[in-house]
């Protein structure tokens, strides 16, 4: 009866896309409206729009089920700076920088196959 049409929307952000930190199924949607916005930018937008602090804090806690371990949870902005080539090495502790840089490389290596799946266009 002239039903309604719906678009299935995903919530993958640019950080997850760049790192491959998403499931193949989560990319099987009609549109990805925030796929070009990095996680640190999303957090900034949330702050600008007065999203409750507890929601912002909860989005940065470790959650191994979704691929966000302690290192990633504690270094959201640094990870984005590395993958967007906006990194100022002098602004970071060299040991943390080396650890996060290695994590980014390994995460991208482990998940690179997702960029080659036939339905990821």
Description:
This protein has 121 residues and is an all-alpha fold. It is built from six helices and no strands. It is globular.
User: What coarse outline follows from CA principal-axis ratios?
Assistant: globular
Proportion of residues in helical segments: 40-55%
Low-pLDDT segments: none
Average of per-residue pLDDT values: 88
Summing up helix and strand content along with how strands pair, one would put the structural category as mainly alpha
Number of helices: 6
The major beta sheet can be summarized as:
none
What is the gyration radius calculated from CA atoms? Answer: 16 Å
User: How many beta-strand runs?
Assistant: 0
- The termini sit apart by 33 Å
Beta-strand percentage?
A: under 5%
The oligomeric state of the chains shown is: single chain
The string of secondary-structure elements, in order, is: HHHHHH
Topology:
Layout (H helix, E strand, L loop, with lengths): L13 H6 L19 H10 L4 H6 L11 H5 L1 H8 L10 H18 L10
Helix pairs in contact: 5-6
């Amino acid at each position: 009866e002239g039903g309604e049409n719906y678009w299935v929307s995903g919530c993958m952000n640019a950080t997850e896309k760049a790192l491959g930190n998403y499931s193949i199924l989560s990319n099987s949607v009609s549109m990805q409206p925030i796929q070009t916005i990095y996680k640190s930018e999303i957090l900034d937008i949330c702050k600008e729009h007065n999203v409750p602090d507890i929601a912002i804090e909860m989005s940065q806690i470790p959650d191994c089920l979704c691929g966000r371990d302690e290192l990633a949870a504690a270094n959201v902005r640094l990870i984005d700076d590395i993958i967007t080539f906006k990194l100022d090495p002098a602004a970071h502790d060299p040991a943390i920088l080396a650890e996060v840089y290695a994590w980014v490389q390994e995460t991208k290596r482990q998940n690179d196959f997702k960029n080659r799946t036939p339905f990821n266009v």
